[in-house]
Amino acid sequence: MEDFGGRLASVWSELRPTTRGLVERALQTPGPVVAPARNPNGTNPPYDARADHELSRLLAALDERSREPGVSLAAEKETQLRHIADTCAAVLQEKTRSAEVFAQLVRRAESQRDYKRIDALADALSGFAPSEVCELARSANVVVRALANEALAQFPTSVLINLLSDPVDSDIARDSLRRQAQDYGSEEARQIVNALAQVDASGDEY
Asked: Are 120 and 150 in contact, with CB atoms under 8 Å apart?
């Protein structure tokens, strides 16, 4: 990392050995950078929020370095920098459960017009906590918001019902239930939406 400047070297040196190892092992894997599919059986390693934060900082520093005005790197070094950044992004895509990091990855893929990556990120949302997806549904970024709303519409109706008691996420949950009822024909969602409308009407009468 010293070859790419002091800031990158500093961020790299601050990574815990376990986090650094994630990137190093991924860099040693031959072939194109692809985020491994999440295990549908739920046997993935436990989520490491600190590693998420560290890798997010590293990716931001790598991308910032590549965009710096007047950056003059040999073609080989420029290719290497881009490969390290793409590898870091792939590792994050595999492991993150953070709304903030997910939004970072979507913005990055969007800026690169990497629509296949955006599709893969959308699939990864099934492994996120509902509250994190609700946070993404409030994002200022149109693409992030659309991906989150689509993911929420695919959640089990029972999960959305549980969110109705959350003062922060209840409005998002209501919108998702309405979409399940209208766009996907869910009878359970329709019944809940109608019940909520009756409660709202009763409240307006007082």
From this structure: no
148 and 139 in contact (C-beta within 8 Å)?
yes
C-alpha to C-alpha distances, 59 to 14, 35, 97, 123, nearest whole angstrom: 13, 15, 16, 21
**Per-residue confidence (pLDDT) for residue 33, from 0 to 100:** 55
Percent helix, strand and coil across the chain, each to the nearest 5: 70, 0, 30
Spatial distance between the Cα atoms of 153 and 135, rounded to a whole number of angstroms: 14
Which tens digit of pLDDT belongs to each residue from 39-77? 544 445 678 899 999 999 999 999 988 877 555 667 778
Contact yes or no for 4/64 (Cβ under 8 A): no
Is residue 47 within 8 A of residue 97, CB to CB? The reply is yes
Place of tokens 């815990």: 16
How far apart, in whole angstroms, are the C-alpha atoms of residue 162 and residue 189?
A: 13
- Which secondary structure element, helix H or strand E, spans residue 65, and what is its range? helix 49-67
Q: What are the tens digits of pLDDT across the range 72-106?
A: 667 778 888 889 999 999 999 999 999 999 999 99
Residues 160 and 173 sit within 8 Å (Cβ to Cβ): yes
How many CB atoms within 10 Å of residue 118?
19
Q: How many CB atoms lie within 10 A of CB 17?
A: 7
